[in-house]
Amino acid sequence: MKEFEVINKYFALNNVNRPDVLKGVGDDCALLKVPRGQRLAVSMDTLVAGVHFLEDISPEDLAHRSVAVNLSDLAAACAEPAWLTLSMTLPELDDSWLAGFSKGLKEITEFFGVQVVGGDTCKGPLSITIQAHGFVPESVYVSRNTAKAGELICVTGCLGDAALGLKVAQNKLKVKTDVAEQLLKKYYRPFPAIAAGIALRGRATSSIDISDGLLADVNHISQQSGVGALLRWERIPLSDSAKQVKDQTLVQQAALSGGDDYELCFSVKEDELEATQHALQVVGANCIPIGRFTGKPGVRLLHEKEEIPIKDMGYLHF
Known about the structure:
Blueprint: H1 3-12, E1 21-23, E2 31-32, E3 38-48, H2 59-76, E4 80-90, H3 95-112, E5 115-123, E6 127-137, E7 152-155, H4 161-169, H5 177-188, H6 194-199, E8 206-209, H7 214-225, E9 228-232, H8 240-243, H9 248-258, E10 264-268, H10 273-282, E11 288-294, E12 299-303, E13 306-307
Parallel strand pairs: 4-5, 9-12
Antiparallel strand pairs: 1-2, 3-6, 4-6, 7-10, 7-11, 8-10, 9-11, 12-13
Helix pairs in contact: 2-3, 4-5, 4-9
């Protein structure tokens, strides 16, 4: 099978058809229309086998994961997703694998209403690069460098499950079957908080998605905004599955620096907390305050009144 046959069979047919796509897959360039009053938000991530995902991952899960981690970046910018470009490096053309990847891609793009509008395929070690495009109103873009001292640090959901799920997948953590299933699901099938991001428009003063680990990502906001951060361990939400893991030191490490949660971490003014909690509740998300940005540089972690030494901030790409 040749390159264009692969594109036509697995990626061009049965695609979401958005009215703002004037020319999509099959031409040298896509021709796209940005709605009036909106700005185009763009993010791109590359996932490499053995680095960003386990080599025995199913193609359906890989497709879901590749799209989800990119859409999560749009969620952090309070953007509504619209289009994707997909570049794949494949060691070989495997019909069964491509059919599974195409199925997973179709499911997640249909769920979020995004259209694949172009990309590339070539031969080499397995890697997936996706560029996600979305819309955000001109007046409500949220970034990492706009937090202020005194504002609350909040998250949209439980932390640590994905990192624990990776340990289960690597046979480094033994738990009950039902717990393992929940942890593995959070690792293999992260769910980008798109609705929460849109609900945070006009409310969040800064935002980031938790991909590298809570401490690392809070530190990104802290450094770029020129503020410090004080987090309280007892306020960090843990799932029932995480609470059933016997090694709670491992759970703490996963929640603080494990990464791959793809929940949103954001700041709000204290007098906006109740309204923000209500707005997120409407879309089925949470707004859980876990600390506060401060005027003292650096990220600190307290448990009750004692400061916990921070040994590992989170994932580093190099």
